[in-house]
């Protein structure tokens, strides 16, 4: 619904994104401004429900669809929502700390979803993920343990994030790599703090990816 609302805004979309997305430079300089604290805190939550386009939205929803249901089963519906929001908040904080000069707003659910991936890695490391893998000129579906799939994903986010630090400018935009890294780590740290509702071992469940 939030994305459909975005589509209806037309020329008002850009100021809407600046208002409800996380702008690291505004957060970093808040103590020297006259902005109320709510204008800084609220975007950390609203930004999770905004997206930059259809591909951004569908890509995030694909990851959430593949990995989110088992974590929701483990935590229960309401607890999963709390977990999801906390992961998104942690992702936004990490992104802000490492991009504090950036004036470009950060939006998207990927930080919160990265937390779900981190929780999945610890909860079901032996689950088989059906993964599309290019082998020379051929493409094959191969079942790979979640530990390898998500571990590789995390390492790539970290490396891209490290590389982005050298090129960060106030007008830097693009992928919020450190939100992914931060969300993933927060998800790993939080998942053990919530009581487990399910008692099912998903050691060899097949997941499509």
What does this structure look like?
It is a single chain. Strand 1 and strand 2 form a beta hairpin. The protein has helices spanning 2-7, 13-20, 24-28, 38-46, 54-75, 77-98, 110-123, 146-166, 177-191, and strands at residues 128-135, 138-145, 206-208. It has 209 residues and is mainly alpha-helical. The radius of gyration is 18 Å and the shape is globular.
Jot down its keywords.
3-stranded mixed β-sheet; Rhomboid-like fold; 9 helices; mainly alpha; 58% helix
Summarize, please.
By secondary structure, the chain is mainly alpha-helical. The chain is built from 9 helices and 3 strands; from the N terminus they run H-H-H-H-H-H-H-E-E-H-H-E. Helix content is 58%, strand content 9%.
Write the layout of secondary structure elements.
Layout: H1 2-7, H2 13-20, H3 24-28, H4 38-46, H5 54-75, H6 77-98, H7 110-123, E1 128-135, E2 138-145, H8 146-166, H9 177-191, E3 206-208
Parallel strand pairs: 1-3
Antiparallel strand pairs: 1-2
What is the architecture at the second tier of CATH?
Answer: Up-down Bundle
Biggest sheet overview:
3 strands, mixed
Distance between the amino and carboxyl termini: 25 Å
Sheet with most strands: strand arrangement = 2-1-3
